[in-house]
Batch of 3 targets.
Target 1
Amino acid sequence: MSKPPVWYELLQRDAGSLARRGRLHTPHGTIETPVFMPVGTQATVKTMAPWELAELGAGMILANTYHLHLRPGESLVARAGGLHKFMSWQGGLLTDSGGFQVFSLADLRKISDDGVQFRSHLDGSPQLFTPERVMEIENALGADIIMAFDECPPYPAEPAYLKNSLRRTLAWAQRCKTAHRYSEERALFGIVQGGTDLALRREAAAALVDMDFPGYAVGGLSVGEPKPLMYETLAYTTPLLPADKPRYLMGVGAPDDLFEGVERGVDMFDCVLPTRIARNGTVLTSRGKVVIRNATFSEDWRPLDEQCDCKVCHNFSRAYIRHLLKAEEILGIRLTTYHNVYFLLTLMKNIRSSLEQGNFSTYKQEFYREYGYNGGNTGEDV
């Protein structure tokens, strides 16, 4: 029997937690897990060339179904030969389903059991996303992993709303599975919703596992709930999912969240954080976040992070990068983005190494101590 287009290989488990080391096999290469996926919303990770991402070791990136549907359109991408050829990316690709846009574009949409009616944020044109339409769009885009259409409920939400939202999401998941055209190149993942209601999370996981998806995402977290509640919900949810399939925590990428997610059994992460804060002049360092735009760095000749060996830290000073940012030179945000993406990809590489060596807990404690994380603080602006 031939292997499916995407499959997970469990290599080892951490003795002291739910953390695990594995590999995700895809038509565009094998991805070492746990993995962080940079976000390329418009078929590009902002300011970075594909060869730079490959150079940094990004095995897989994420593209946005909603935005690519509106511009340039999935038909054009399909005529170009699919997203990989369109954006000249040789590694793994994942497309979300537009479910988060259902959450974030509250003023522009109307949800029903059939799907979501909304107006384009670009030109106001009317749009309709149904599970069947989303599958059509995602298959045309041609990523290795495509996500089922779901509703991401807000936090907080009334119990009745959460229950109805989950009912709809599960019905949509089955419709996506039915509509998905089986391909040797694509795998459809289900998304576990339910807010912070543990009973609903259990119901969602059971229903989706029964549908037998090749992978499962945990959605609807990091949407405003306190971090301890997010971690509690995640710790409850991941053991409900099959051990022989990948687990993906959507939209999470702060360094502490990566550690806590890995500790709770997550294999895949994505987040816009490294690129977004880079454009605002903030960088991630081993001692916490640094707001490099601040005047205190105007004559600081140190690299962004003295413990970092990326090309940016080898070649440029804080003072120079601050100058570029203040002068609104494009190179400034290219350098901060390159460094931030490198920082998180290297962090995940080190986490994988710690799992292989059996010292994940020790590495986590050492990182937190240096980073300045104490359970609420996420580092000093040094």
Target 2
Amino acid sequence: MKKTAIVTGGGHGIGRSIVTKLLTDGCQVAVLESNPAYVDILSNETNQSLLPILCDIGVPAQVENAIQTIGKQFRQVDYIVNNAGIGCFKPLDELTIEEWNRVLSVNLSGMFYVVKSCKSFLSDHSAIVNIASTRALMSEPDSEAYAATKGGIVALTHALAMSLAPKTRVNCISPGWIEVNDYEGLTEADHSQQPVGRVGFADDIAETVSFLLSEKSGFITGHNIIVDGGMTKKMIYD
């Protein structure tokens, strides 16, 4: 019997790579995506295992409706990948309260809404992977809203791991520099910054997601897995 997965923000970038990997792994995949153009693209794919749903995960009512649709069609949910996220990088005195709240509602609260709405559909031995960021651990200027949500995801992950145990394992991934737009346009200097010698691919994250959802990682829960080519371990002296 096919496993059922939900992927948020699965229309492009890392999310799209995760969807492709899970389909390859033999899952049926429901994609919650807020961009109508990406939903149309996914809807035009001739894959009976793919269910695209237009949904803004920052809006609880939309999440609830989407999960009810998934529950009626698939009956149960084996995997959740909370990937959707937005950024807003502005100086502190220019960042509005509305912008702050919007980033929190999508990046952090949206994950909570999805898991809460799915709880009654989760199968035994289910697994959840939340996508955080190395910005949960280090920052550049003008990144308060984004960094706060990514740090919150790490904490939400271990809290959910305890609340949903032993039925459901919950882990998160903190990607480093993952280039999803113009990999060919990267310079040697870009690649040489990374201890592994290259900038990351979206597939690097998708492969890690696949592992954390599988029983191969059955003794791992509550953890933040850093996938950054070693950048957070690199000492830099000016």
Target 3
Amino acid sequence: MTRPSTHLWRLLKWGRTLARHGALQGIERDPLAPREVKRIIRIARFGARVPKQPAYAEAFQACGPAAIKLGQALATRPDLIGEAAAHDLYRLQDRLPALPFTVIKAAIERGLAKPIDEVFASIEEEPVGAASIAQVHRAVTTEGVTVAVKVIRPGVEREFGEALETYEWAAAQLEDIGGEFARLRPRLTIATFRQWTARELDLRREAASASELADGMTAEPGFRIPKIDWKRTSRTVLTLEWIDGIKLSDLAALDAAGHDRKALAQTLVRGFLRQAIAEGFFHADMHQGNLLVTANGGLVAIDFGIMGRIDRRARQWLAEILYGLITGNYRRVAEIHFEAQYVPAHHNVAEFATALRSVGEPMRGQPVKDMSVGNMLDSLFAITRDFDMVTQPHLLLLQKTMVMVEGVATALDPDINMWEVAEPVVRDWLRGELGPEAKLADRIVEDVRTLSRLPDLVRRIEERFPAPGGAPPPPPLGNVQLVTRMGAGWWRYVLTALLAGAAGAGLTLWLG
């Protein structure tokens, strides 16, 4: 087990780097920051020349690969680090110098347990990308298919393991302070970060994420996911379809190729909403570098290391919240927050609805170019503080991705109205999920599942109470006497009652 002194030494070393870039100024000036934390920051920056304008992204890049990934995780927590710092960290790119090809070749052969010549007819030694965890090379398989080969950088797992231990230790110390730190749940942020890292360090999980996302996006025309080459994929090597396309960041190239930027922006927004609301599984790193436009104008997403998941009930709440904001039904939005227990019950629903109105009304009917996302987030986080809302990491990840998607869409089409694009998608999903037909279907499914468990229940009871002349039963249970008095045909009554109940409930929902 790592000693606290080791954690403190690492934190001071990283803190020194962050201080030199001015990245700790906000914490040091915050009146709510504990004196102990401020004291450590002053020690860390002692003798350093601190710039007036903090450079958060550069600071985390200077701290190394694990810090780059932590910075990307913190970009989803503006409530924890401040909106300005989170906005700056959105642009954090984990580009690093490439490792020599001899090192990468050996890693591929170890990962696939075969000589490289047996799986690839050729592979380019110069990588197309080098990040904090892996680097990517273009190759051609022995079948003649062009693919992208992603390889985990040797030694990165040990480095991440050490850093994660220290991050978890530091988060625990902060949360134990209590107050605002306890409400913001920093340990949960680091736990989420560990989940991201585990997925990225096991490329089989990234491949599975890509495959699952591809299945969910089959109904969205113009948006697709590269196919996985499972035969050439392992824990440390991922092989997938090579996509020739233009990155969304290259607007000049998009215009030169004749692509409709307005249509691309709408496809992007609809694709993201389908992932988040309809499927509950979304690509959580949809920046311009991870989105390509093919020759036929289709959008392709790549890099599936950071994914988000939302269960069905949370998606229903989320869709109702979005639709309520779109239509101005702030009372319903407020009620959902209380139903979901996002807001403690001792607060007033009407007061919360009024607070939401102050955020929603300025946005309705306005083009994105006339909105201030920063002001909106500031208002939302003020509400979370005023109403004691406990942090919901899955919603923060979704919010971060939504802001990212909005930024990419705005770059493509400055006049896009996110609400207008989102409204039909959200409305149709809500109709399908909360309409009478959906309620009837849910009830039928629930009753069928109950009925399907009856045979097993009957077998277990018969084992407990065999027919006369059979093996002696085990000691009787205290709660089965009523069942034995019902006679040999008791199960018919149970089955009839369940069927009648299912039919009655279905008829009630259908007529209602």
